[in-house]
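Researcher: I'd like a structural prediction for the single chain below. Treat it as a standalone chain; there are no partners to consider.
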Amino acid sequence: MNGSMEKRYSYTFRRLFLVIAAGVLMSFNLNTFVKAGGLLPGGFTGLSLLLQEICLRYGNFNLPFSVTYYILNAVPAAVCFKYIGKKFTLYSVLAVALTGFLTDWMPSMFIEHIQLHDTLLSAVFGGALNALSIALCLYADATSGGTDFIAIFISERYHRDSWNYIFIGNCVILAVAGALFDLDKALYSIIFQFATTAALGALYRNYQQRTLFIITNKPDLVYSVIKEKAQHSATCFEGFGSYEKKSRTLLYSVVTASQIKILIPAIRQVDENAFINVIKTDQLNGHFYQRPFD
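Model: Treating it as a single chain, here is the predicted structure.
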């Protein structure tokens, strides 16, 4: 019981630390690279900055970033709280609250010391920093809020890919920004989003799948490793090895990309002669186990 409680407290502390770090990092990025380059990130963050800029230029008043950001996140957060997971949503709301508050109240000393005069550098490094903050939230089993709430709800509830709709929404935001303000900054914002996507793909791979083809003489032991380490099943095929003229068993399984580095050494421990082929899986239809949100 004590060990279980310690593990739970450790997990909770880890989640809190990662979410707080993500909120601080995201607000720091908004107040430095994004502001220096005049960029618009995607999702509710970009929409909040766009509305803030519109109010400042055409209404001559400064609309706090946090006000718009909180209002936009309120309904998606409430929906996710009801249908996705309570703890998942609460940790995500913490990230949203920190980002909004610190973006408005972070000391200007950071902004004064990081003033890049190259918008391209701001877009590239700002996009990478944005990806890191999003990845920290994902490793904490939470999100950075915004359109991630909508994407996860649609994916979990309706088993549909919503990223195309979010991409269209981002394009509309950039089109409005380009029409009202500066087309160059809107185009640089596309580079920012591309850098975010590319960096996030390298930092976080739990949403990527890999297909395993394993030729082995110990199928039961290898299957036990896959089941224990990855919580996924496998399909066995009986075959014939042409070189040694002996029967062989082929195990077929699909796992997440992040599990590969754990599985291969574990499989080698039970069968050092196993032949393992790992293939990138671009599209998967059917039942695939995803650890549920808490």
